[in-house]
Amino acid sequence: MTEARQAAPAPGEIRWDPEAAETLAALRTGPRILRAAFEAALLVGGLQAAEIALLGAGGFAAMAIHPFWAAVLLVSLQHGLYGGLAAAGLAGLALHWAGFVVHGAGAASGALAAQWLASGLILGLLREPQIRREAALAADHGRLQRMNAALAREASRFDEIVRELEVALVTRPDARPPAAEAALLADLRRAVPAALPARFAEAMRTLLPQADAALYAETGEGGPSRLAATADGFPARCAPADLAPARSPAPGGRAILGRGPGSVGFVDLRWRAAPSDPERAAGVAALIAEAAVAALRDAAAAAAADAR
Q1: Residue 240's closest CA among 212, 269, 220?
Q2: Mind listing the domains of the chain with CATH numbers?
Q3: Start-end of H helices in 171-190
Q4: 219 or 152, which is more confident?
C-alpha cells in the first residue's frame, strides 16, 4: 500500500486506531435510540389515530389482543432493547391518554402497560447481541470493501509501472527517451479506427525500423483482412495456411503476433535485417502487437455497443 507501515506503539502509548473507531461508531446507541423512538412514535401514533377515527377513544379496550402489541413487538425485534422500551413507554402513555383511567380501567391498563414493558425488555435483551453483531459485521464489510478498492487501485498502478519498465527495457537506449516511446505505444493503444493505420505505421517505423509489418483484423469472412501495412507484399486477405510461421528474428524471418482464441486481429511481422538484440526486438514487437490488437478490440466493442 502507498501508506508507510506504522511502527508499533511504545509501552504505555495510546494510539488512535481508525478501524476500531469505525466499529465503535457503528455500535453507537444514540442514533439507534432516536430511530427506534421515531418508528415507535409513528406506529403508536398511527394506531392511536386509527382508533380515534374508527372506534373512538378507548375503542381498542374491547379487543382481545390490543393492537399496540404489534408496535411493541415490531420495534423490539427491529431495534432491540432501547426500541422495545421506547415502544412500550409510548404505548403506555397512549393507553392512558385514550381515557382508560377515567373509565375505571386503571388497573387493567397498568397491567397491560407492564406486560408491554416486560415484553419489550425481554425481546430487546435477546435481540440486542444480534443487532450489535450485525452492526460490527456491516462495519467490517465496509472496511473490507474499501481495502479491496485500494488494493485494486494499487494493482492497476503496479501494472502501469511494470508496463513502463517493460518499455524501458525493450526499447533502444540510444534512440528516443523511453517516455516518448511509451507515448507512441499509448497513442497506438488509444487510436480510433480511422487513425489506427497511421499510428501503427508510426510505431513500427520508430521502434522497429528493421522490420515490416501488417495489421490484420479477424473479419470472419474470407479470412483476416489487412488494415495497415508498412511495406508492400502483404496480401489484402491472409490465408489460414499462412498464419503459423516460425518466429525468427533473422532477415526474412516472420512472426504472427497477437493472434489467439477469440482475438480480433493480429500483426504479421517480417524482418528485413537482423536486430542487434533479438530478445529486445522481439519484446518491442510484442508490445506493438498488443497495443494494436487492444485498439482493435476497443473498436469492436464500441461498434457492438452502438449496434445495440
Answers
A1: 220
A2: 18-147 (no CATH), 178-307 (3.30.450)
A3: 178-189
A4: 152
Q: Taking a C-beta distance cutoff of 8 angstroms, is the pair 212, 269 a contact?
A: yes
Cα separation of 40 and 77, whole Å?
A: 12
Phi, psi for residue 232 in degrees, rounded to 5: -75, 170
DSSP 8: P
Quickly state the pLDDT bin for 1 (edges 50, 70, 90).
Answer: very low
- Tell me which residue of 270, 292, 299 sits closest to 200, measured CA to CA: 292
- In the numeric block, which cell numbers belong to residue 211? 522490420
The tens digit of pLDDT for each residue in 32-89 reads: 778 877 887 888 878 878 777 777 766 676 676 778 888 888 888 888 888 888 888 8
Q: Which residue has the cell 421515531?
A: 38
Whole-prediction pTM value? 0.43
124 residue type, one letter: G
Residue 291 identity: A
* pLDDT at residue 3 in the model: 42
Q: Which alpha helices (H) appear in the chain, and where do they start and end?
A: 18-26, 29-54, 68-97, 106-170, 178-189, 196-207, 278-307
Q: How far apart are CA 80 and CA 121, in angstroms?
A: 9
